[in-house]
Amino acid sequence: GLEPKRPAEGLEPKRPAEGLKPTRPAESLERNRSAETLEWKRSARLGSDRGHQCFMKRAAYNSKVSLCVRSYADLISGSVKATGNWHECDVIFSIWNALPAQGEGGSGSDVFFDIGANIGICSIEMASRTSAAQVFAFEPSPRNQFYLTGTFLANPPLLGRLRLFPVGLGERPANLPIYADPTNWGHSVVGSPLGTDPQVVGVVQVRRLDDLVRPPYPQVRLAKIDVEGFESRVLRGGRRLFSSGAVRAVFIELSPFLRGQGSSRHELISLLLEFGFRFHDFSRASAAISPIATWRLKLLACPGSNDRFDNLLAIFSGSPQPPLSRC
């Protein structure tokens, strides 16, 4: 019952009227040949990891959920093997619960976007712990796809809630090399080699989010974006979606990797302001969401050191703002 009933017609949809409200997530993807070809069919496992197999671990939040992670040293897999979860996924879960439902159908009609899904630890947690109708995951690395699909195949009750697109998201369609850090194989970077000893692990497809997700839009309560410096390109390639109001909130990383992709913290923040988002602090202890003052936002956009890592929560307000003044 997750696939749309209408067959693909291969035609461009008419442009929706302004203010068109989101509709059911199962109708959200343009059922053209391109999107249908790209989406994982939820049968065979994708990708491979040089002959390595899964290390299976029970999730800390639900002993019935099995997690397929790397058997060798890796940042995220190491944490999951030790604790049964990845700490950032718990933060994302808390933010989801603190946000009001996006759709008229209540929380059961909302969806979660995991852009830069890595091995799928946050995707499976959100599918398991929330009432999200669907989890849309985007991950280009075949090595990460191997574990992501392995996890969902190991959890049949949750499999139908995943919409996986094994591609990278960017500003324009392209086929680009993907690099990995030998000291942390889960750290994958598209297009530009970063780190001291990056290794090419393949060539991946990059697509625009606006070409994959078209009106009528899903009701996206929260989109997590963590793509190792590609964040600004993801936003530019999803300009229509993010400006539409269909995405309630974005949880996004500011990292030193932005520079390696020809972007900056200032550009990323200014794009979200242009799309109509406002930035907020989130207190996990109290589940409180509060606006960030402009002067603090300027400090985040123009830090004394660009080597910092920060996560920002942006919530759609519907009122586009001019970019921040230059650093």
How are the elements arranged and paired?
Elements: H1 33-38, E1 55-59, E2 62-69, H2 75-83, H3 87-98, E3 110-115, H4 121-129, E4 134-138, H5 142-153, H6 156-159, E5 162-165, E6 168-169, E7 174-181, E8 184-190, E9 199-207, H7 209-212, E10 219-225, H8 231-237, H9 239-243, E11 249-254, H10 257-260, H11 265-274, E12 277-283, E13 288-291, H12 294-301, E14 310-316
Parallel strand pairs: 3-4, 3-10, 4-5, 6-9, 10-11
Antiparallel strand pairs: 1-2, 7-8, 7-9, 11-14, 12-13, 12-14
Biased composition (Basic and acidic residues): 1-18
Protein name: Methyltransferase FkbM domain-containing protein
Domain Methyltransferase FkbM: 114-279
Compact summary:
This protein is an alpha/beta fold and 327 residues long. The chain has twelve helices and 14 strands.
Structure write-up:
By secondary structure, the chain is an alpha/beta fold. The protein has a single domain, classed as Vaccinia Virus protein VP39 (Rossmann fold), CATH 3.40.50. The chain is about 30% helix and about 25% strand. The longest helix has 12 residues. It starts with about 30 loop residues before the first helix and ends in an 11-residue tail after the last strand. The N terminus is likely disordered.
